[in-house]
Amino acid sequence: MPDRPDGTPLGIFGGTFDPVHFGHLRLAEEAIEALDLAGVRWIPAGQPALREPPQVAAGQRLAMVRLAIADNSRFSVDAAEIEAARPSFTVPTLQRLRRADQCGRQRPLVLLLGADAFAALSGWHRWQSLFALAHLAVAHRPGFPIEVDRLPPALAESYRERHCADPALLAAVPAGRIVTFAMTQLAISATRIRALLAQGGSVRYLLPEAVIAHIRKENLYREQ
């Protein structure tokens, strides 16, 4: 596990990962460096509540994440949402992580989000409760910071109240702040990867070779 005993903030990265690709991996890696995280805990969603069902089974997506992060000691995977076999919501997931047998109440947790996901945050289940459970870290394109005036009014207000320019301050409290960081932009999408795989196209250099090998072995994403 990547957790360090000194209480250094821990990144939390949830998603369907259908399939996991280099864009996901790069976001997690750059978040560690930009925010001085102890590591990133990957949490594949069992049954995403706010989007179409994943194309492949939960166990296959979990297996692909395990393969993708296997050689990075700062990454770990949390399979609880997959194993629960119920709709996945972020607030209950973070509440579980706050239990004493998990991360506890005082460990700073940092929920990692892309800019598009953050812009839609006010449509999430109990989104305002997130701030009592974790910090939010929003990845954006270099040179294109978050445009606060384009956010929904309630989210823009929360951003202005909670935005923190210094990531070092994340370690001071367990939750409640919003930080942003620029990350290398990789024009990679899971939707495009699934389309290529369905057509028998090449996905080399879009996702790890171990994941590609698993997809081929299990005959995933092919048109039936």
Description:
The protein has 224 residues and is an alpha/beta fold. The chain has one domain: 3-Layer(aba) Sandwich (Rossmann fold), CATH 3.40.50.620. The protein contains eight helices and eight strands, in the order βαββαβαβαβαβαβαα. The strands form two sheets. The chain has a six-stranded parallel beta sheet with strand order 4-2-1-6-7-8. Strand 7, helix 6 and strand 8 form a beta-alpha-beta unit. The longest helix is centred in the first third of the chain and has 14 residues, at 22-35. The radius of gyration is 17 Å and the shape is globular. Mean pLDDT is 93; it is low at 1-5.
How many domains? The number is: 1
Please give the largest β-sheet: 6 strands, parallel
How helix-rich are the residues, as a percent range?
A: 25-40%
How many β-strand runs?
8
| CATH architecture label name | 3-Layer(aba) Sandwich
Give, in order, the helices and strands: EHEEHEHEHEHEHEHH
Write the layout of secondary structure elements.
Layout: E1 10-15, H1 22-35, E2 40-44, E3 47-48, H2 58-69, E4 75-77, H3 80-84, E5 87-88, H4 90-97, E6 109-114, H5 115-119, E7 135-140, H6 153-162, E8 178-182, H7 190-198, H8 209-218
Parallel strand pairs: 1-2, 1-6, 2-4, 3-5, 6-7, 7-8
